[in-house]
Every structure is written in C-alpha cells, then in structure tokens.
Amino acid sequence: MAAVLRRGVKLISSGSSQLLSGGCKHGRTSTLCISSSRPSSSKINVELDSSTGIAVMRFQNPLVNSLNLDFLTEICISLEKLELDKSCRGVILTSAQPKIFSAGLDILEMYGKNPEHYAAFWKSVQEIWLKLYGYSKITIAAINGSSPAGGCLIALTADYRIMADNPRYTIGLNETQLGIVAPFWFKDTMLNTVGHRTAELSLQFGLMYTPSDALKINLVDLVVPEEQVLSTATETMTKFLAIPGHAREISKSMMRKPVVDRLLSCRDADIKNFVSFISKDSIQKSLGQYLSMLKQKKS
Ligand SMILES: CC/C=C\C/C=C\CCCC/C=C/C(=O)SCCNC(=O)CCNC(=O)[C@H](O)C(C)(C)COP(=O)(O)OP(=O)(O)OC[C@H]1O[C@@H](n2cnc3c(N)ncnc32)[C@H](O)[C@@H]1OP(=O)(O)O
C-alpha cells in the first residue's frame, strides 16, 4: 500500500502481482495504485514527489539486483505506469542494494533452461530496453554500485548517468568475458554513447571501467561522492525539467528512434537468434564455468 512519507511524496512498493492497471490520484499526490497484499515481495520501490514531478525508482532484488524475468517485468510495468502518470515528469533509476546498481541479466535465466524459457526471458529483456531507450520522460541513472553487462545497459538507456566515486565499483559491457556476445542493440546503445572506436575495444575486451575511467570515455556523465549521487541526480533532473518538454522529447526521439526501430523490425528473429546461441553446448559450458567462478570467488 502507498504510504505518505512527507508532503507530496508517496512511497510505492510494487510487486508485479500487486500492480493494478492505470494510475490514480489521491488528493494532491499523484501515485500508482497497488493493492496492499504481500508488499514484502516487491523488487522495486518508487517514490513520486508530486510537487516536483520527480520519481525515484529503487531496485531492491537481493542480493545483487540481477535481472530475472519477474524483476524485469516489474520494472517495465512500473515504468509504464509512470509514463502514463501526468504528474510524473522524470524518473531517477537507482539501487537500494549496497554496492551494486545491477549485476546484469540473471545468468540462471540463461543456463540449463529450455528454449521456451529462453525465448520468454529474452522477450522481457527486449521489452525493458525498448521501454527505457524509447522512454518519453526524462531518465537519470544514479549509479551507486557496480553495473556489469545488462546493468550497464540499463544505465546506458538513461538520458544522463551519475556514478558514485568509488574505485571498487565498475561499469561496462563485459559479455565477452562470459563467452557470450552483446547483441546489436546493446552494441548500438554503447556506440551512441561512447563512439565507435571506444565501443569496439570495450566490447571485444569486455572492459569494465572504474568511475573515473568511465567518465573519461563518456560512459558516465558525472562522478560525485557516493552520498551525493541521489541529490545530484535530483539537481540534474531539475535542469532537464527547465527545458520545454515537447522540444526535449522530440530531440531525444530523433537521436534514438533509428536504433529502437531497428530492433522493432526484427524482434522475433532476434529472439530466435538468442535462443539458438544460448542453447549451444559451448555457450552453456562457458556460462556454467562463469557461475562456478562466481561461487569460488567467495571461498
Ligand atoms: C550473436 C549474438 C546473438 C544473440 C545474443 C546472444 C547472447 C546473449 C547476450 C546476453 C547479454 C548478457 C548480459 C548480461 O548481463 S550477463 C550477466 C553479466 N553479469 C556479470 O558478469 C556479473 C557477475 N557478478 C559479479 O561480478 C559480482 O557478483 C558482482 C555483481 C560485482 C557482486 O559482487 P559481490 O558483492 O562480491 O557478490 P557475489 O559475487 O558474491 O554475488 C552474490 C550472489 O549473486 C550471484 N550473482 C552475481 N551476479 C549474478 C548474475 N548476473 N546472475 C545470477 N547470479 C549472480 C553470485 O553467484 C552469488 O550467488 P551465491 O549463490 O554464491 O550467493
């Protein structure tokens, strides 16, 4: 159930099973409607300040915000609701988990499952990218932890990226390190942000960057002390909000539409390609080894 935090601000816990269709208004505060049952299953929370129009979406999928099917669906539904909500003007994406923005796609969704599962999972990955990269409202990634692969992709879809100044946090498209390949629309998103040569090296080596190195290649726009990430994101959002909305929105769409259209024109083929690639014995073996390496790292 939505709980009032301070004047004009509501906390919205949203489990995918709890979301109802359509936004609703409660007095002066515009928020999303959810039922009150089982709020503890929520993988995200959204705080929408109706006095500023700024929503903060926090990822809270323990342990590391890995992007599984349910989590992706939940994020997508919440983004859709915020997009339809006239009182929301921009969304800040950040993490409630310590040290991790998002560990990227959940490897367990791509390992040891059947083709139908792989297809459904990949469809949800496409959905989140299409939703975020084509999002009409302003998005800012407040990157308060590590952000490999799919986590980096989520950050890359934002209009602006602010990263915490902690050299332990890294960000990048590291897919090749897992023996897998970032698909063309991951590549295009990276390329549109950092340019051709940097994207080429970055993708081939599967490079992960510290915040200061990420800043050097424009993978992030700003690096600030960790405790200032959210406040800086809010200040930056205010600057974006000062621009006439329709002009900003059309400019964003002009920059991104060709890339969005490219995936829209071949979604089914892209799913087929993913299923066939990920089902290969050699790829499954690589993913299995990578998972073992993650586990061994602890011991
Ligand atoms: C031609 C091409 C055509 C089509 C496309 C084909 C291919 C598909 C491309 C797919 C694109 C893929 C994108 C991805 O996002 S792949 C995922 C990449 N992610 C990573 O490499 C991150 C790996 N994780 C880490 O580096 C660290 O875990 C992290 C995030 C820095 C956190 O470190 P730490 O705090 O020390 O925590 P642990 O390492 O101990 O992890 C805790 C726990 O979480 C498990 N885990 C971590 N990451 C993932 C993940 N991505 N998926 C699933 N599980 C993950 C980890 O194993 C630990 O589990 P445990 O059970 O041991 O507690």
UniProtKB/TrEMBL annotation:
Annotated InterPro entries: ClpP/crotonase-like_dom_sf, Enoyl-CoA_hyd/isom_CS, Enoyl-CoA_hydra/iso
Subcellular location: Mitochondrion matrix
EC number: 5.3.3.8
Listed SUPFAM superfamilies: ClpP/crotonase
Reaction it catalyzes: a (3E)-enoyl-CoA = a 4-saturated (2E)-enoyl-CoA; (3Z)-hexenoyl-CoA = (2E)-hexenoyl-CoA; (3Z)-octenoyl-CoA = (2E)-octenoyl-CoA; (3Z)-dodecenoyl-CoA = (2E)-dodecenoyl-CoA
Transmembrane segments: none
Entry GO terms, CC: mitochondrial matrix
GO molecular function: delta(3)-delta(2)-enoyl-CoA isomerase activity
Pathway the protein acts in: Lipid metabolism; fatty acid beta-oxidation
Keywords assigned: Acetylation, Fatty acid metabolism, Isomerase, Lipid metabolism, Mitochondrion, Transit peptide
EC main group: isomerase
PROSITE patterns for the chain: ENOYL_COA_HYDRATASE, PROKAR_LIPOPROTEIN
Superkingdom assignment: Eukaryota
Biological process annotations from GO: fatty acid beta-oxidation
Keyword Iron assigned: no
Function description: Key enzyme of fatty acid beta-oxidation. Able to isomerize both 3-cis (3Z) and 3-trans (3E) double bonds into the 2-trans (2E) form in a range of enoyl-CoA species, with a preference for (3Z)-enoyl-CoAs over (3E)-enoyl-CoAs. The catalytic efficiency of this enzyme is not affected by the fatty acyl chain length.
Subunit structure: Homotrimer.
Family designation: Belongs to the enoyl-CoA hydratase/isomerase family.
Protein name per its UniProtKB record: Enoyl-CoA delta isomerase 1, mitochondrial
